[in-house]
Amino acid sequence: MLRSIMPRFAALFLAAVHLLVFSVPPATAQQGIPVVRDAEIEALISEYARPILKAAGLSRSGIDIILVNNRGFNAFVAGRRIFIHTGALMEAETPNEIIGVIAHEAGHIAGGHQERLRQQIQRAQTMAIVAALIGIGAGVAGAASKSGELAQAGVGMAAGGAEVARRGLLGYQRSEEATADRTAIDYLNATGQSARGMLTTFERLAGGLALAGVNVDPYQISHPMPRERIANLQELARNSRHFDRKDPPELQLRHDFMRAKIAAYTQGAAAAARLFRSDPNGLAARYGDAISTYLTGNPAAALKKADALAAKLPRNPYLQELRGDILIKANRPQEAANAYAKAIVLAPGTPGLLQVGYGQALMATGKPDLVRKAASELQTGLSREPEFANGYRYLAQAYGQLGDVASAELATAEGHFHSGHYRDAKLFALRSQKRLKPGSPGWLRAQDIIQYKQPR
User: Fold this and answer.
1) CA 132 to chain CA mean position, Å
2) Rounded Cα distance, 304 and 316, in Å
């Protein structure tokens, strides 16, 4: 009896809590989440998020925004991280739509919804287990009395109790979603931004359900229905004096560049062209075309297109980054390094990812003095972006060219560690430690990797 009831309970319960599998440790990719790293997109999303996080009181809370390579229009929170699908970034036609998404997710973090959700799950789990045990007791009593009806009632009580617990949990989640929606409008008002983008997002979701011919039981989902959300928020949104405010043209252009880049990298040239078919000669369409030309292996034509765009937008660092990528593929590493160096000067903040690209180009020259500089640039870039696993591969190659085997093996260990390949990481850390001076910073870092225990 126990084996026949508990799987049924487990299936019902897991259906309610499936979103909690995104409990993401530092090496996000090891959990099967396909993370995207891109200096241009990350800088733009950080700019979107900065005023919202400040309004939410989260600007000093170490909130990270992670890009997930997924075509779906979705975002979610895990710990102190906001995950946004590239599909959402590509489909959103204005910055304001994504800013509304970020405001909603910030509302979850600021409201402590995850911690309370964990408490609700524990309560729901207890309710379901108690119901299952009562059902088992009834089933055993029925078997002892040879009453098939009583035994069947026991199964029904167990399954029914789990269903009550699941519906209660889903109802709690729906209330928290509604709270996050209202809080998001407060953040948008506080930062002088429109809530129109939020309404546009919900209208898109509602239209998608209608087009799909989906009949949804509102009591079986964890979010309010899109039409319900629109009705609840429309008056609040339209009463704001910022409702008709539009995104600045320069911000809109950067948003369109981001959409073009995502489309070209994830869905190909045709997708990028479709996005901007109403303005095929516009800058965003041309950017997508230049990236697509580079990706299809025609560096000469791609460079010509990128140069033309850079002449139009000489202060755009990411056009210089694209030029660097193209020149690397064209086997012109010195020119690529110059393009990356220019990108670093033009980019805001401390662009660690661009420094990694710069180091990669310097290393490709094969000149000993530039390879030494490459190792230094790569090390600096990775100190700012320690979870960028691919960067450690370039760093290991640079140390290998310099004959520093111990540092090359430690860099390889770091790459495996941040990719979630702990067994390989420990192996290379052991190999590097044998060549390093005991007690040195490198030796101690290798020891940390060797002693690391993967969290459950």
Assistant:
1) 38
2) 16
CB 18 within 8 A of CB 121: no
Quickly count: other Cβ atoms within 10 Å of residue 193's Cβ. 25
**How many angstroms separate the CA atoms of 390 and 411, rounded?**
10
Burial of 250 from C-beta contacts in 10 A (0-12 / 13-18 / 19+): exposed
Token digits for 242?
Answer: 């910022």
| Residue whose entry in the numeric block shows the structure tokens 């990356």 | 340
DSSP type of residue 72:
S
Q: What is the dihedral of CA 316, 317, 321, 326, to 10 degrees?
A: 30
Q: With 60 as the cut, is the pLDDT of residue 446 above it?
A: yes
Strands (E), 244-368: none
Q: How far is CA 389 from CA 22, 30, 32, 84, in A?
A: 20, 11, 15, 20
Asked if 127 and 164 touch (Cβ cutoff 8 Å), the reply is: yes
In angstroms, the CA 236 to CA 182 distance is: 8
**Tokens 């041309």 — which residue?**
286
Query: What's 84's DSSP letter?
Result: E
What is the distance of C-alpha 12 from the center of its chain?
28
Distance CA 450, CA 425 (A): 8
Cβ count near 105 (within 10 Å): 24
What is the full DSSP assignment across 192-204? T--SHHHHHHHHH
Give the β-pairing of 81-85 and 75-78: antiparallel
Which element (helix H / strand E) includes 302?
A: helix 299-312
pLDDT in tens, 158-182: 444 444 444 443 444 556 777 888 8
Closest CA to 406 of 446, 373, 349: 446
The domain locations on the chain are 1-247, 404-456
Amino acid, res. 300:
A
Predicted TM-score (pTM) of this structure: 0.77
User: In degrees, to the nearest 5, what angle opens at C-alpha 252 toward C-alphas 45 and 348?
Assistant: 45
Q: What is the mean pLDDT of the chain?
A: 80
Question: pLDDT tens across 113-137, in order?
Answer: 555 545 444 554 544 444 444 444 4
Report how far residue 388's alpha carbon sits from residue 140's, in angstroms, rounded to the nearest whole number.
Answer: 56
Enumerate the β-bridge partners of residue 66. 83
